[in-house]
Every structure is written in structure tokens, then in C-alpha cells.
Design goal:
Blueprint (H helix, E strand, L loop, with lengths): L6 H25 L13 H34 L18 H28 L13 E8 L2 E6 L4 E4 L1 E5 L4 E7 L5 E4 L7 E3 L5 E5 L5 E7 L11 E7 L1 H11 L8 H8 L8 E3 L6 H11 L29 E2 H4 L3
Parallel strand pairs: 1-5, 4-10, 11-12
Antiparallel strand pairs: 1-2, 2-3, 3-11, 5-8, 6-7, 6-9, 9-10
Helix pairs in contact: 2-3
């Protein structure tokens, strides 16, 4: 009895694959409808360069990966058990040098291409590298606590919790550390990549915002029960609006001294945004020095120091506008 042709089955398989790919694309479109993919929507120089680099690397890898996937499918289809035309069985076949050159040469070429792209970009986008500008960088000290962010403006002598405002088109230098907190990652996706904040150590992140707006920031590292609400707002405004904001903050009734900072050290969740009209001199340096006095190095829990008693869970969430400490931050 003649064997029935398998061509219709092959055609059905291609149709199923096409429909599966189409369904996947539609699903992603529906899920992202009305949502902003922050990594793909840069609002600053550093984020723009990181996005461009990511797209170029993805394109280079696609040139290698897509043909490899097609070839893998072709081999699986050609040598399938149900194939009407059986492939020749050649256990002793010898392959020429061309195949060896292709197997080793093609990946090597792509590795060299990626190296030529990534090595210069790594030095160019080094977080500690200052951004060239005619304006003086704005320095902001950042302390990661459980589970909140403290921002200290040394020049303006003010401080905030879970809110930071910066002038547009002016470089900003963030000095990052943590205190009695697990290692966290400071991340504003619209403006830059993430960088670790670690207890007893300091990191430096330089960025610049080129468009005004409110950009969400968070910790990119899981740090415990309050991780999901460890968020802050980064507002980029004109220099005039920034100066006016500083003037208003300086009228707030509360100040950030050692006693108030010890209150902030108490673990808490979903903290509201808070502003302080003044900050104790060298508070950031004192946070670092207390670990150096204890023997140096960084830790994830205060180097054996007594852990504060966690506060009860709060249902209050961060608001768009920060309010003063007296209005919405109770202990």
C-alpha cells in the first residue's frame, strides 16, 4: 500500500507556529496597552545611551541567534522519525575543516564585535564618571534604610524621605550608602541604570534629566517584607522651580538631626514622603563612620548591632506631593 504524503501535515505545523507567534505578539500588546515601559522611554542622557547600547547588542545577537534557531528547527524537522524520506545514516562520516571553522569562527567573530561595542561603552557609562557640563553638579547624599530612602542635600542643607527633586539639564551626583539595611539597588529607570547601596560603603551615581516630569524610583534588590513599597519619586523641574521648592522646604517645621534619624532607622513600610527644613552637619559622613569605628567593611544588618523593633505595618502610601514631617510621618 503506497505511503501517504506528509506535506499537508507539514503545512499545518507551519500554520500552528505562525498562529502561536501571532498570539504571543497580541498578548504582549494587550498587556502593555496604556503602560509605559520605562526602560524603553529614557528621559536623560545616560538612560538614552544605555537604551541605544541595549538595542545595538540585541540586534547583533539576533543576527546570530535567529539563524541558529531556524537551523535547529530545520535539523529537528529533517531528522524526525515520521519523515517520509529517511536521512542517510553515516556514523563514520568525516566533516571538513570548513565546518570546524564555521563552528568556532562565527561565535568568535560575534564575541569580538560585542567586545568592541561593550568595552568602550563600559568605560563611557561608568557610574562614577562625571557628566561633562557647564553647570556645577548637584550633590545629593542617599541613605537606604528599611524600607525607605533618605535624601540629603548638603549645599541646600535640607533633607527628604522618599522624594527627590532635581533641576533639568543639570548633572546630579548621588552618593549612595545604606544603614542597618540589606544591600539595595538605587534605580530610576527613566534616568539611569541601577547601582548598589551597601551598609558601611559608599557608591557614586552620576545622571542628568533632560525632560521635566515625575519619574518613579525604587530598589532593584529584594530586601525583605517592605521591599514592594520601597519606592520614591524623582521630580525633574526647571532650575527656578527647584529653587522655589528648596525655599518652601526650608519653611517646614521639622529638622533632621541625630534623634530624628534614629527614628527613621526603625524599620517601617509604605512610608509617606517627608521634608526637613534643615539637616545636621555631616550626618551622611557620621552614618559611614560608625561602621568604620566598629571595624570597617560593609554588612547587611549593622554588623551585629541591636536591631530596632519594627513598626506596625502602615497603610499610608506615598503621595504625589511631599508633606512636612509634622503632617504625615508619625512614630
Amino acid at each position: 500500500m503506497p505511503r501517504r504524503s506528509k506535506k499537508p501535515r507539514q503545512g499545518n505545523l507551519f500554520r500552528v507556529l505562525f498562529l502561536a507567534v501571532l498570539a504571543f505578539v497580541l498578548l504582549i500588546t494587550v498587556l502593555l496597552n496604556g503602560s509605559e515601559v520605562r526602560l524603553l522611554n529614557p528621559k536623560g542622557l545616560i538612560a538614552q545611551q544605555e537604551l541605544y547600547l541595549g538595542l545595538v547588542v540585541t540586534a547583533v545577537l539576533a543576527v546570530l541567534i535567529v539563524p541558529s534557531l531556524i537551523f535547529a528547527y530545520f535539523v529537528a524537522w529533517k531528522y524526525r522519525e515520521s519523515s517520509p524520506k529517511k536521512a542517510a545514516y553515516e556514523p563514520n562520516a568525516r566533516y571538513g575543516k570548513r565546518l570546524d571553522v564555521a563552528i568556532w569562527g562565527i561565535p568568535t567573530v560575534f564575541m569580538l564585535i560585542l567586545s568592541l561595542l561593550l568595552v568602550p561603552a563600559t568605560h563611557k557609562l561608568e557610574p562614577k564618571k562625571a557628566i561633562v557640563s557647564s553647570q556645577k553638579p548637584l550633590n545629593i547624599k542617599v541613605v537606604s534604610l528599611r524600607w525607605k530612602w533618605v535624601f540629603i542635600y548638603p549645599e541646600q542643607k535640607i533633607a527628604t524621605v522618599n522624594f527627590v527633586q532635581i533641576p533639568v539639564d543639570r548633572p546630579v551626583q548621588f552618593d549612595l550608602t545604606a544603614d542597618e539595611s540589606p544591600m539595595s539597588s538605587f534605580w530610576i529607570p527613566n534616568l539611569s541604570g541601577m547601582l548598589y547601596a551597601m551598609t558601611g560603603m559608599t557608591n557614586q551615581l552620576n545622571l542628568v534629566a533632560n525632560e521635566e516630569g515625575d519619574y518613579p524610583g525604587s530598589s532593584g534588590e529584594i530586601t525583605g517584607s517592605g521591599f514592594a513599597d520601597m519606592r520614591f519619586t524623582a521630580r525633574a523641574s526647571s532650575q527656578e522651580e527647584f529653587d522655589e521648592w528648596v525655599r518652601v522646604v526650608k519653611m517646614a517645621p521639622e529638622t533632621l538631626d541625630t534623634h530624628e534619624y534614629q527614628e527613621l532607622l526603625v524599620p517601617s513600610e509604605a512610608d509617606p514622603q517627608v521634608v526637613y527644613s534643615a539637616v545636621e552637619d555631616n550626618l551622611y559622613d557620621k552614618v559611614l563612620m560608625k561602621y568604620m569605628a566598629a571595624g570597617g567593611g560593609h554588612g547587611h544588618g549593622g554588623h551585629g548591632a541591636a536591631q530596632p523593633t519594627p513598626k506596625p505595618h502602615s497603610d499610608a502610601h506615598a503621595e504625589t506631593e511631599p508633606h512636612t514631617h509634622a503632617e504625615g510621618h508619625t512614630h
